[in-house]
Specification:
Layout lengths: L2 E8 L5 H10 L10 E7 L7 E8 L2 H9 L1 H7 L14 E8 L10
Antiparallel strand pairs: 1-3, 1-4, 2-3
Length: 108
């Protein structure tokens, strides 16, 4: 079964718009990667400053291949001179899971 990677980002309220715009600007950066299955950026609703970046992959190997290849360039996000903008998140943790059960809505 698939694996899930959740990047847990601490984002101060004043940086939320910046973070969301940066993800919107990178649309398509992962979708055509071999083994990629799903992406979601989850905005906190109340009581936390934690965003979740959910990605699902066919295998750990597919995720690692993306991280060492296209993932590195997607995270550079700098100017032509190689400058990187200030990160919108103040902290980041990567959670890893194996999918052991799944369900989808019933089709009529």
């Amino acid at each position: 079964m698939s694996i899930v990677k959740i990047n847990v980002l601490t984002v101060p309220e004043e940086q939320r718009e910046t973070l969301e715009k940066r993800f919107a600007a990178r649309a398509g950066a992962v979708e055509s990667s071999d083994g990629f299955e799903w992406f979601e950026l989850l905005r906190p609703v109340e009581g936390t400053d934690t965003y979740l970046v959910y990605t699902r992959w066919r295998s750990e190997e597919d995720f690692q291949n993306w991280m060492t290849g296209r993932g590195q360039s997607a995270h550079r996000d700098g100017s032509a001179e190689g400058e990187r903008p200030k990160p919108a998140a103040t902290d980041s943790t990567l959670w890893s899971f194996e999918v052991v059960q799944q369900a989808a809505p019933k089709q009529d």
